[in-house]
Amino acid sequence: MQLRFSQQEEQFRAEIARWLKGNLCGEFEQLRFRGGPGDEHSFPEERKVWEQHMAKAGWLCVGWPKEYGGRGLSINEQVIFHEEYARAGGPGHAGHIGEGLAGPTIIAFGSEEQKQRFLPGIANGTEYWCQGYSEPGAGSDLAAVKTKAELKEDQWLINGQKVWTSLAHESEWCFVIARTEPGSVGHKGLSFLLVPMDQTGVTIRPIEQLTGTSEFNEVFFDDAVTDAANIVGQPGEGWKIAMALLGFERGVSTLGQQMQFQNELDQIIKIAKENGATQDPSLRQRIADAWMGLRIMRYNSLRMLSGGQDGSLQREAMIYKLYWATWHANLGKLAMDVLGPDSELVESGPYNLTRLQSMYLFTRSDTIYGGTNEIQRNIIAERALGMPKEPKGR
């Protein structure tokens, strides 16, 4: 990965910027800078219309191969796209789980029939996905999954519970890690199933967050079914495929995430200049530290993206979640300290949280979801550094 882009790539950047400027207006103007983490409840239907608008212009799933509805952009071009999208205030992707996780996994491991069935709906913005990994007793420890699936003639019969399922209430499909081998434990006996959400055997219950919204949910599977053909890979290969999917999660969209962080930092700096917080040397130093941390995050991401694109995690990729989660949690604290007393006030009814207030509250979860900081440190120690595994308690 080069730190500078070619003249042709910069022309591509200008093309994207022009398109976004000419389209993020009119009916879509209200969506700018909305729908990101902690704000997913904002304009859900309107953001789906926006994504379908993007799809018609060929700006959805830009990194996918052309034969599956993408643009086949190079890594450099994908980086540019995600950066410009966030810079322009492009709304949070309602379909990011399908575009960034389910789709690449199906492309890498799915059958041709699965690709023909599931990829078009993601690529044209008409079918949305959620992730059925975490359970009440299997959050960061995915190998402790207890949800079971049994093959009955031509269908999988699924029973169990998932939790912290983001956007389940907005999704038509869920990729579910389930135990398909009776008596199996740990990594063995797991399978990767594609399950329709609109059926009597699936119950979705929202979980209210600190922000007062319900972006994620509990999902109960009570004799839920999916076709026998809706298994990605072979029975028992679920762990391998699940780990590859987590590798895709650390793909080029991380650069877009960082541009969203930059937008938040820019807003904090603007407020600090307006209210005089820049006169506080401690706050000035924390703002400088945040700026430097974001630059480091970018360079580490570019190094991470320089490796293979098959979902396997390089050692550099294993530090990413721990780094950005800790940095972003600190940014939330900085935002509140820069706001001062205003951080505890809302302007008027209906007393909705401001963007920075919502961001601060949501960052409290950054070090928990997607693998807690403690789990991330274990991953770095064991997988990246080759240190002995943590002793298991008796």
Automatic annotation (TrEMBL):
It comes from Ferrimonas pelagia. InterPro entries: Acyl-CoA_Oxase/DH_mid-dom, Acyl-CoA_Oxase/DH_mid-dom_sf, AcylCo_DH-like_C, AcylCo_DH/oxidase_C, AcylCoA_DH/ox_N, AcylCoA_DH/ox_N_sf, AcylCoA_DH/oxidase_NM_dom_sf, Mycobact_Acyl-CoA_DH. Residues 130-223 form the Acyl-CoA oxidase/dehydrogenase middle domain. Its cofactor is FAD. It comes from the Bacteria. Residues 236-384 form the Acyl-CoA dehydrogenase/oxidase C-terminal domain. Belongs to the acyl-CoA dehydrogenase family. Signal peptide: none annotated. PANTHER family: ACYL-COA DEHYDROGENASE, ACYL-COA DEHYDROGENASE FADE29. It holds the Pfam family Acyl-CoA_dh_N. Gene3D superfamilies: Acyl-CoA dehydrogenase/oxidase, N-terminal domain, Butyryl-CoA Dehydrogenase, subunit A, domain 2, Butyryl-CoA Dehydrogenase, subunit A, domain 3. This is Acyl-CoA dehydrogenase family protein. Residues 7-125 form the Acyl-CoA dehydrogenase/oxidase N-terminal domain. Keywords: FAD, Flavoprotein, Oxidoreductase. The keyword Disulfide bond does not apply.
